[in-house]
Amino acid sequence: MAVRKAARHYATGLSRRAQILDAADGLFRESGFGSPSLREIAKAAGLSHPGLLRYFASKEELLDALLDRYEGAARAPGGPIAGPPPPLLGDGPAAEPEAGTPAEPPGPDRIVAAARRNAAVAGYPDLVTALGGEATRADHPAHARMGRRYRELRAWTEQMLSTAVPAGGLRAEADRVVAGWEGLQLLALYDPSGIDVAACLERYLHGLGPEHAANTAPAAPPRWTLDELVARDAEEFDRRTGYASGRERRARILDAATALFGARGFHGISMREVAKAVGISHSTLLYHFDGKDELLHAVLARQDYLTISLGAVAGDTGLPGRLSAVVEASRRVAYETPGLRELFSVLSGEAVAPGHPAHAYFEKHFAVSRRYFTTIFEHLAARGELAPGRGPEQEAVWLLALCEGLQQQRLYDPEIDPPGLLATSIGRVLDVPAPPAG
Fold it and tell me: Cα–Cα distance between 198 and 214 in angstroms, integer?
């Protein structure tokens, strides 16, 4: 009798844990990790706050359990990962193959297969990609876990690439592949119907081999001139923020908000804290910005405004200058303004949740950036300056994903060199020596 009673209690406990994890998963997907409180999660699970605390002492502990559940589901018999998985969905080494089962040889195709398996675990790419951005802060509860995940993923990727890439370039290529992969997953969450992560990754990996076929299709005429595109986008961001009409008045507020959002995310600060950091009253801050949502949009849009203005490369509107500007911008962000990159990574990670106030902003940001890169490559293709097998749309998506992923990965590993890795990648696309990195 005592054994049966203990078994019932155990089964009830497991059921309650699953109930809590389901509720947390739904709320995290809807509004991000930072937004819901434990009380809100308890309410969504149909429990009291003290009842939830019997199972999870903190949101951090709950998040760890949720990640463990996703990884366990992926590895379960009959799950999306059949056979020995790469160390992609867990923190430990890959499982040993069953006795009598031959080990699968390394190769780039296994990276593509892993990307497809990841996509098959419903909700997992959303959670891990969002956390990859949010946890770039060193004080985030998932920072160490995500850093370990990326180290293991790079090591496994090096092994998979060893059949296609010379030994001397393995580490750099693994950095590029992992960063591009992470960037593609981020872009896909803002444009799920427009980006197929595994297909984009497969195109890039096939381009590393000698069998890369020439693209003989005639180049389509560019849809925009670069000057028209830059002027249009800069005007749009300027109009959306009111930045041009109030630079001096708003600059101190935006500087303080940029630092605070970057350090603690959107949900981690209040308007009163921003006002205190600036040295003004709460009511004065509300005179300039109606609320935190409006302030966040202004902070993000100002960064876009500045990036577009600097990216225009005064006095040099040629295509090499545009691509050199991409490399130079990555150098500046990585080595001169890392706080701004952290801000962008934290907020773009948080905002993958459709209910986040910045979700629509990032949809627009990535669409504009993708259009800008596509236009550059369309002009290069029209001049016959793209390397064989390269297409403007595909190269634009990869370059944007690589830019995003490299900057994020550097926040976990300072040895990663975004401008150098970008310059090499751009050089391959043009089939010419890479643009200078500084």
Answer: 21
**Is 271 exposed, middle or buried (CB count within 10 Å of its CB: 0-12, 13-18, 19+)?**
middle
Question: Who has greater pLDDT, 400 or 310?
Answer: 400
Q: pTM, whole model, 2 decimals?
A: 0.79
Contacts for 184 with CB less than 8 Å, ≥ 6 apart: 195, 197, 200, 201, 397, 398, 401, 405
Mean pLDDT over 230-239 rounds to 61
Q: What is the pLDDT, as a whole number, of residue 168?
A: 92
Q: List all residues 6 or more positions away from 230 whose beta carbon is below 8 Å from its beta carbon.
A: 308, 311, 312, 372
pLDDT tens track for 103-136: 678 899 999 998 998 888 878 888 888 888 888 8
* Angle at CA of residue 182, ends 179 and 188, nearest 5°: 135
Rounded to whole angstroms, how far apart are CA atoms 77 and 191? 32
For residues 364-383, average pLDDT: 87
Beta-carbon count within 10 A of 191 CB? 13
Measure the CA–CA gap between 330 and 308, rounded to whole angstroms.
Answer: 13
